[in-house]
Design goal:
This protein is mainly beta. Helices cover about 5% and strands about 35% of the residues. It comes from Streptomyces lasiicapitis. This is Secreted protein.
Length: about 525
């Protein structure tokens, strides 16, 4: 029997998925889908470990509220404009936590960015193999209230026609990053290179629907000869739009994979852009009143807009990008969305891609700072030769939390009971800004999630997986004490590939529920009685 190498394992997976996609019309999901199926072995693993944790609020000021975003905690994948990954309300404390889930598609269905409108309804984008779906969900039942289909991404067509599904798993474009604005409208860039603003509204009969309020065409600024079912072998250039965010003046900023940075003026429709030649942008970006922070695979940038809206570089700082892409990274560069934070000074933090050990890097944001004082600290984290992250840091006050994603690439990485080397560290900037110190290190194995902190209860939330000698792939929501790094409790969410979060975040809802996007849909964990 031939050995199943990474290459032919990927082709086998690709063939399987392609055949499934081919019969998807016959497998169309009903209006109210089922729970996500668990793989065999879920009764043989621990359902719950630890004990309920008392709520111990973490002192400190929250990030400034962005005037053009939904309230902090409700607006996007990283919780706020600063990318802090913090929530001002509770998550589950571990009191007999209950798990529910919703299967969003026959294949795929992962709901990554989860936002909440004023009434607590979920507005999310779920990725299926027939295209991304914008969904309005009931936050308790996860039932779909309304749905809007986005255009299929070129990477999906390439994956199916070339039987190479790594193209999907490393594609962050087409709506994966989106935000909810101050009027509860979802803003995203679709695979046509259009920025779209969607409102949701309720009809007299009680039904809901999405309405396109605005549609700005970027193709005058962005190459768009992309793979499609009618253009399988394009001869021109295709540059997918990775992410969008508003600045403090209301302009909508956008970035592309091939290093274009642009703005849309929502009032006039004017579009302006510049390009970081030879650089790639695969992450989202963060915004404060003092500017826009963007990281490419070569450097960290601070941007501002000129009078006509054209992005202008305020300062640029290169970092150690290493000599290649590590297992656990999307590209050869930083895997983090910048974090804007600081109790005494305005800081920005990212990680680099240094070959041996990844470093957490903290810089001063003030444009007047001499370049010799820009870098505050450079702190190596995790083990030699096994250190990387492709997820945002958590930031609160002068503290940062970073997880190790080394070894995770896609849903095939951790099957048959495997896991990553793991590791989580907390690093604090000193009050006088003279450097940084490692506060604690934890062995928690969080393969690919965007972790979160509840400042109301002092718990960090990770999505974890331990090695299993029986080959059972058991996934857990795990709560860790922010102050000490000690795990407090964990709750099984499910078993098998369908419960792999595949880079999706933990999101804390205003009612105290923790949501996790997983390969087959969305999981909710809440304390009994909540």
């Amino acid at each position: 029997m031939p050995r199943l190498t990474r290459s032919n394992r990927g082709r086998a997976l690709g063939l399987c998925l392609a055949l499934t996609v081919a019969v998807l019309p016959a497998l169309a999901a009903p209006a109210h889908a089922d729970e996500i199926p668990k793989a065999p072995g879920h009764r043989l693993v621990e359902q719950y470990a630890g004990a309920p944790a008392p709520a111990r609020p973490v002192p400190g000021d929250p990030p400034p509220q962005h005037p053009h975003l939904a309230a902090n905690g409700r607006s996007g994948m990283h919780a706020d404009a600063a990318g802090s990954g913090t929530y001002p309300w509770n998550g589950p404390l571990g009191n007999k936590p209950q798990v529910t889930s919703e299967k969003m598609a026959a294949l795929g269905g992962e709901c990554a960015t989860v936002t909440f409108d004023r009434d607590g309804r979920i507005v999310t984008v779920c990725g299926t193999f027939t295209g991304f779906l914008v969904k309005l969900l009931d936050p308790r039942t996860l039932r779909t209230l309304a749905e809007y289909k986005l255009p299929q991404r070129p990477s999906t067509v390439e994956a199916i026609t070339r039987l190479d599904f790594s193209k999907i798993f490393k594609d962050t474009s087409g709506g994966a990053y989106s935000y909810l604005d101050d009027k509860d409208r979802l803003v995203l860039a679709d695979s046509r290179q259009h920025v779209v603003r969607l409102a949701h509204e309720q009809a007299a009969d009680g039904t809901w629907r999405f309405v396109v309020e605005d549609d700005w065409d970027l193709t005058g600024q962005v190459p768009h000869d992309c793979v499609s079912w009618t253009n399988l072998y394009p001869s021109g250039e295709c540059d997918p739009v990775t992410s969008v965010m508003p600045d403090w003046d209301g302009r909508i900023w956008w970035v592309t994979r091939q290093g274009r940075v642009g703005t849309v003026d929502p009032e006039s429709g004017d579009i302006r852009s510049t390009r970081l030649a030879g650089e790639e942008i695969q992450n989202s970006f963060s915004v404060a009143e003092d500017g826009v922070s963007i990281v490419s695979d070569h450097a960290l940038y601070s941007f501002e807009a000129a009078a006509d809206g054209t992005p202008e570089v305020v300062w640029r700082q290169t970092y150690d990008r290493g000599t290649g892409t590590k297992p656990g990274s999307v590209n050869q560069g930083s895997g983090t969305t910048p974090d804007l934070f600081g109790a005494e000074e305005n800081y920005v933090a990212i990680t680099d891609n240094a070959d041996d050990r990844m470093n957490v890097l903290v810089y001063r944001r003030d444009p007047g700072v001499p370049e010799s004082r820009r870098l505050v600290c450079k702190v190596p984290v995790f083990g030699s030769g096994a250190s990387t992250t492709d997820n945002s840091l958590i930031s609160h006050g002068n503290s940062l939390v970073v997880e190790n994603n080394y070894g995770y690439e896609n849903i095939t990485s951790l099957t048959f009971g495997r896991s990553v080397v793991g590791g989580v560290s907390r690093i604090d900037v000193r009050e006088d800004g003279s450097g940084c110190d490692t506060v604690w290190q934890s062995a928690v194995r969080s393969p690919s999630t965007v972790p979160k902190l509840s400042t109301a209860n002092g718990l960090l939330y990770f999505y974890t997986k331990e090695p299993n000698r029986l080959g059972i792939d058991a996934w857990y929501l795990t709560a860790v004490d922010f102050r000490t790094g000690e795990p407090r409790w964990k709750r099984l969410t499910g078993t098998g590939v369908a419960y792999d979060n595949n880079w999706a975040p933990v999101t804390l809802g205003p009612d105290g529920t923790a949501y996790v996007g997983v390969f087959n849909g969305l999981v909710a964990v809440r304390d009994e009685g909540d």
